[in-house]
Design brief:
This protein is α+β, with helices and mostly antiparallel strands. It is 27% helix and 34% strand.
């Protein structure tokens, strides 16, 4: 499996989940174009995944993985600023916040996911995440998800499997970032540079990978195929192996979901007044996974004749890797703080640069005059009547 994330929000990305596999060229020649893929999976949403990127922070929490600390004498806490859509709602671990802004924030007293990534690469790979899920489930039990994984690790699990047949002629779009203001779109897309404003249109769910698709830098290939950069080498290897075995390599983009992540901070207390300026601990993330993913059959079409070929394969768990927020959060401050600072600085620059300052002052006076005109008219009418 592989995945692709498109930065179209603050701490929010659209995730495209895919699998890739080989199909015999003999089948394609005999039965025609691969037109439909019938598959099933169990959809689930992970609990919050904490990734420690700062040294000497992980050790403070490592012994409390899977432990409810509400009744324990444990004086360290974590806090994550809410994402733009309120997914985390000011997520906090083992902490009371004396600030009305964060009333209603989501408190938890049990860390289920905890990783240490203090090197240059702070990504948790798909393999690492799957191994962790197995380890936690073996250690803490409660294996009620798909009959093998601990329910602690998931915030939501569908009651039934998804069973779909996806046609190659269908398409889907991925929306770009849109604040509702053209100026803000430009500011965040060009100046801040952490969101993409363009819409990706007419994406095909079934793609036969060609040799030309694998030309260029890894980043270019990943963007072209909508796959993870870290998986490009594996996809190339699979393509080469399939070519030698007289097989075509199929990329099946079967689902989109929302991936959210935010900066996470820590404190050596269970009480904080204002969490904005706490030291950075790492980041928090949450994603959708697809358990027991299985392809049931493939439909080929040739000369308007459809042929359904059953598939026998072992189900896999499609669990994408965890990546840091796409935002620029230098100094441990969240993006919105830097945006406010940037706007204030821009206003100050405009005020002190002629003729921009004169134009700005004139614009402000004009707006004030327009707003006050009706009130002045009413006042004059009352004065005349008096």
């Amino acid at each position: 499996s592989t995945y692709y994330r498109y930065n179209n929000g603050f701490n929010k990305q659209t995730q495209v989940s895919s699998v890739y596999f080989g199909v015999s060229n003999e089948l394609l020649q005999k039965y025609g174009t691969l037109q439909k893929i019938h598959a099933e999976w169990l959809k689930a949403r992970t609990s919050e995944i904490a990734v420690m990127t700062e040294k000497n922070v992980y050790s403070n929490f490592a012994n409390y993985i899977g432990v409810d600390v509400s009744e324990k004498d444990f004086n360290y806490c974590l806090f994550a600023h809410p994402s733009s859509d309120g997914e985390f709602s000011g997520w906090r671990y083992n902490v009371e916040i004396q600030n009305t802004v964060y009333d209603g924030s989501k408190r938890t007293d049990k860390l289920t996911y905890l990783f240490e990534k203090t090197g240059t690469d702070n990504t948790v790979s798909s393999e690492e995440l799957q191994e962790y899920i197995k380890w936690y489930s073996e250690k803490f039990g409660n294996k009620t998800v798909a009959g093998k994984y601990s329910a602690d690790l998931f915030s939501q699990v569908d009651a039934n499997k998804t069973d779909v047949t996806i046609d190659a002629d269908s398409t889907f779009d991925i929306s770009g970032f849109n604040s509702g203001s053209g100026l803000l779109n430009w500011f965040y897309g060009s100046v801040v540079g952490n969101v993409s404003t363009e819409e990706l249109k007419n994406i095909k769910p079934i793609k036969i990978i060609e040799e030309t698709d694998l030309k260029g830098a890894d980043e270019e290939i990943a963007s072209r195929l909508l796959v993870a950069v870290a998986d490009v080498d594996d996809i190339k290897a699979e393509f080469d192996a399939n070519s030698k075995a007289n097989k075509a390599t199929v990329l099946f983009r079967f689902a989109t979901s929302e991936y959210v992540s935010a900066t996470m901070q820590h404190h050596n207390s269970t009480y904080i007044l204002e969490p904005v300026f706490l030291p950075t601990a790492g980041y928090l993330a949450q994603e959708t996974v697809y358990l027991d993913f299985d392809i049931i059959d493939l439909t080929f079409v040739k000369n308007d004749v459809a042929t359904v070929i059953p598939v026998v394969s072992n189900p896999i768990d499609v669990i994408a890797g965890i990546t840091a927020p796409p935002t620029s959060e230098a100094g441990g401050l969240p993006l919105w703080v830097w945006v406010i600072i940037g706007i204030v600085c821009l206003i100050l620059v405009l005020l002190f640069i002629n003729p921009l300052s004169e134009f700005l002052l004139l614009a402000v006076k004009t707006v004030c005059a327009v707003i006050s005109a009706p009130f002045k008219l009413i006042a004059s009418l009352f004065k005349g009547r008096k």
